[in-house]
Amino acid sequence: MVLSLGIICLVSSGILAVVYALTKKPIEAAAEKKTNDAIMQVLPAFDGQPERLSIEADGKVYEYYQVMKDGNVSGYAITAAATGFGGPVSLMVGVTSEGIVYNTSVLSQSETPGLGAKCTEPSFADQFKNLDPAVTRLAVKKDGGDIDAITASTITSRAYVNAVNNALAIFKAITEGGDPEVASGTSTASDQATETCPAETESASTEE
Amino acid sequence: MGKFRLITKGLVKENPTFVLLLGMCPTLATTTSALNGMGMGLATMFVLVLSNMAISATAPYIPDKVRIPSYIVIIAAFVTVLQFIMQAYTPAMYETLGLFIPLIVVNCIVLGRAEAFANKNSVVDSACDGLGIGLGFTMSLTILGLVREILGSGSAFGFKFIEGDGILAFVLAPGAFLALAYLIVIFRKITKMN
Q1: Fewer CB atoms inside 10 Å of the end CB: C or N, chain A?
Q2: Number of other CB atoms surrounding residue B190 within 10 Å
Q3: The overall pTM is greater than 0.90
Q4: Which value, to the nearest 10 degrees, does the dihedral of the CA atoms of residues B8, B11, B14, B17 take?
């Protein structure tokens, strides 16, 4: 009894080890390609390879990529996240050296399909193209800003805006060397709870 | 029973979704679009065929008392293999299906076929059974996903043919239940007529 179960476990783990070793490189390559594609998308054309750097602020380490053009630093691709409806909304935000948001790209999100998941579509995301934070107020219209929220998905829209704001705070820290004031994204939790739209109910998943 | 009968049986007479009503959790949760449904169905089919074959080959040597843990270990191993492969070669699909790939381990279709068929039939027959049930599951999930996608987003397999938003409820959980219930009714009606 113990023997047969032991043999099955041994053989299974052996197979897993082989498959893990075989797929390790492709998995890493796929992840790297995704990051590089995101950087290309959020920043204007640059020379060479983006340089991976990190900055420490509030006891947290934030990663970002620095790109060069004609020998000068031309922009930064900053990964930032904020809490959305179904989990963190993680973005790659491209900020030029002048502090203009060039473009944004969603790295991962688990928002409701058909509602919050629309944050990846151009109708919403294009609002963050060539955005000057000194001119456009970075908040959804409901909160007195200039960003049009996605219909019935204010929480997701807020998370997106918060993530961009976080990226700008990190950008400030990079250029000025000061401590960034990164909004936690959960600070408005109580306010979000009361405002949850009935249509935005999360589909519960249970094991069978 | 002929090999061909074994495969077609899973499509109609023992269709896991419309007749046996097994594996409802991934059925309802992943069919937000036709492509997602098809991806989930194919992923389950991959695990089902391999686990059926492995279990049918090892069943005579496994003592009855530890057969369930043994089956689960075998199924879990194949699911993890699938996870690695999807992560490496179809990262976009892997991200969409997310949690539901590891949950194939506890999908009652897979364990159900191991208990009901694979452990008392030959390796080839078990593979055919897995293929049939897997195809039936894929077909049902694709149809359900297609219906929900057309009604909910106005598109089919990602191609948008109705401008604007569809009936949002069909993308969300309630639409899954409604669409599934009506599809079961239609499926029963058609199979009864024949």
Answers
A1: N
A2: 11
A3: no
A4: 170
Exposure pattern of B133-157 as b/e (b: 16+ CB <10 Å)?
bbbbbbbbbbbbbbbbbbbbbebbe
> What is the per-residue pLDDT across B92-124, written as a single tens digit (0 to 9) for each?
888 778 778 888 888 889 999 998 888 888 999
All structural domains of chain A with their residue ranges: 34-207
Chain A residue numbers touching B92 (CB-CB < 8 A): none
Residue owning tokens 């896991």: B16
Any A CB within 8 A of B89 CB: yes
Chain A: residue nearest B59 by CA? A4
Are B111 and B126 in contact, with CB atoms under 8 Å apart? no
Alpha helices in A95-182 (DSSP H): 122-125, 154-176
ipTM value: 0.74
Q: Which H or E run includes B77?
A: helix B67-89
Tokens, residue B51: 């686990």
Indicate the residue of A23, A108, A114 with minimum beta-carbon distance to B172.
A114
